[in-house]
Write a structure and sequence with these properties.
Number of helices: 15
Radius of gyration: 27 Å
Helix content: 40-55%
Oligomer: single chain
Order of helices and strands: HHHHHHHHHEHEHEEEEEHEHEEEEHH
Number of strands: 12
Shape: globular
Distance between the termini: 50 Å
Strand content: 5-15%
Structural class: alpha/beta
Largest sheet: 6 strands, mixed
Strand order of the largest sheet: 5-4-3-2-1-12
């Protein structure tokens, strides 16, 4: 007797697939729109509602897949500018999208653990902090990043860092999802308290904080130069043109500045070993009688180690050097996985620095320097403030990404870093955005962004030194991590209580039936 073959599972129609995964895709598209289009930042307040409506606590794999589709879609569309890093770098986009889905496991596990979407905001905040603290440091497009332009709301970053805005945004989305289902019971009330009510309270507090922040009497006149140097002009044979342009811009502002600042890689070479670069910085300091801060490269004499550096040369010849602590992922430290090619194979293997020095000026200014993407790390800024810095200076170069959303996204991250650290942040860029941000995250003065090869721009910014103490400076990432874990456990308590009550009810019914049988 032959066994009958097992019946085949019917194929899902395209409509069923679209109904199952379409909401997750829609959430990813809405989140990408909020990250890329400045006028659509408010969309982040409801972009997760579609995927939240499809989440099911009992189905861990399905939940993880839905969240992965959302995050991967948003990441891929937000980081499209990665392809401009170097020719043939388009493979970095799917790699970044795949890497981002690893952290959705934290969200899916918390959802399964708590049994409701009430745990999603805290889990999202924890996942972003964990991702930032890992060596790869891939936390570019925070969920709450589009809210950085909402000055009163963004003050929550002073309490628990930039990721606290993601908690606020996710809370609003979860509350809206509960309202959509018309679940008017205690969970909807908790979601409302955790979302709109908390958001309104934090916004009111943020407005109060801004109105009561006083500028420090001590100020620094910073002469900033936005040279707009193209990659071609950094080659040794075309370098004299770029150096002459920077000299002209420096001379136009040096008389009114306490310090002159050039952006990342403005002196694009190993300044200690290339005679034309050495002569340029020495002659500039001697001619202007002003300290000169600039971005460059350095290496050991045997060329065994090369570093990306910021160098301050004082008129008396004193030199202070900062070696970049956190190298940019992929471009400056490429992981050796799957034999993937390096985006910039001609660049050396950069070595990170080991300490964060504080630069001192004669007028009492004490600042720490951040290079490239380091101004997105609030823990680096916190470390500098705790070491005595009353100003943060970021040297950046976003020239390859001119015309994309990258400069806007980068500026938003810098605004949240300034709020978290409670110190003004001066950003000096090659093509833009060159500006200074006050401790409340507001852009106070800025140079118009330009393009490679133009004449460049220069100005003197008057920047008050110092700022208010913040809760984030006191506790760092420990505070939001602890709060997030507590809230995740608290979201699971009702489930435990319900399961315990169901267990007692079942036990009571069985006991009652047993007594009835014995009585017979």
């Amino acid at each position: 007797m032959t066994a009958e073959p097992a019946p085949r599972k019917p194929r899902q129609s395209w409509r069923a697939v679209l109904w199952a995964w379409g909401p997750a895709l829609l959430s990813g598209l809405l989140l990408a729109a909020a990250q890329n289009i400045k006028s659509l930042g408010w969309v982040v307040l409801f972009c997760l509602v579609p995927v939240c409506l499809r989440l099911r606590p009992a189905r861990l794999g399905r939940t993880w897949m839905a969240l992965s589709i959302t995050i991967a879609t948003a990441t891929a569309l937000t980081l499209t500018w990665i392809r401009l890093i170097a020719p043939g770098s388009i493979w970095l986009i799917p790699l970044a999208a795949l890497y981002s889905t690893i952290f959705t496991g934290i969200l899916a596990l918390s959802f399964r653990f708590a049994g409701s979407t009430l745990a999603l905001p805290a889990a999202w905040m924890v996942a972003e902090i964990v991702a930032r603290r890992l060596p790869f440091g891939a936390t570019w497009a925070l969920l709450g990043l589009p809210l950085a332009g909402m000055t009163a709301t963004s003050q929550v970053a002073s309490l628990a860092g930039p990721e606290a805005l993601s908690f606020a945004a996710a809370s609003i989305n979860v509350a809206l999802a509960y309202w959509w289902h018309r679940r008017f019971h205690w969970t909807a009330a908790v979601a409302t308290l955790q979302g709109p009510v908390l958001m309104a309270a934090l916004t009111l507090w943020g407005g109060y904080r801004i109105s009561h922040t006083r500028e420090a009497p001590q100020k620094l006149d910073a002469g900033v130069v936005q040279p707009q140097i193209s990659r071609e002009e950094r080659s040794p044979d075309k370098r004299p043109v770029a150096l002459r342009r920077m000299s002209r811009l420096i001379d136009s502002i040096a008389h009114g500045a306490d310090v002159v600042i050039l952006p990342e890689a403005a002196i694009a070479g190993f300044v200690r070993y290339e005679d034309d670069l050495t002569e340029f910085v020495k002659s500039t300091v001697g001619r202007t009688h002003r300290p000169l801060l600039f971005g460059s490269f350095d290496r050991t004499q045997d060329s065994s180690e090369a570093s990306i550096v910021a160098i301050l040369i004082a008129p008396d010849g004193d030199v202070t050097t900062y070696r970049k602590l956190r190298l940019d992922p992929v471009t400056e430290r490429t992981p050796r996985i799957f034999g993937l090619p390096r985006p910039r194979p001609n660049e050396p293997d950069w070595t990170p620095g080991k300490e964060q020095p504080i630069f001192d000026l004669e007028d009492g200014g004490r600042f720490a320097t951040l290079i490239s993407l380091e101004d997105i790390f609030p823990d680096l800024a916190r470390s500098a403030v705790r070491s005595g810095a009353n100003l943060l200076i970021a040297l950046i170069d976003t020239a390859p990404f001119t015309g994309t959303a990258q400069p806007m996204q980068h500026l938003r991250r810098a605004q949240l870093t300034a709020i978290s650290a409670g110190r003004p942040l001066l950003r000096v860029a090659n093509t833009g955005v060159t500006c200074w941000i006050d401790p409340n995250g507001r852009v106070r003065q800025a140079l118009e962004p330009g393009r490679d090869g133009s004449e460049g721009r220069a100005a003197v910014f008057e920047i008050p030194l110092g700022g208010p103490q913040t809760i984030y400076n006191i506790f760092g990432d420990i505070g939001p991590l602890a709060i997030g874990l507590i809230l995740m456990v608290a979201a699971a308590v009702p489930r435990w209580i319900g399961e315990k009550a169901d267990s007692r009810a079942t036990s009571s019914r069985l006991s009652f039936r047993g007594r009835g049988r014995r009585s017979r």
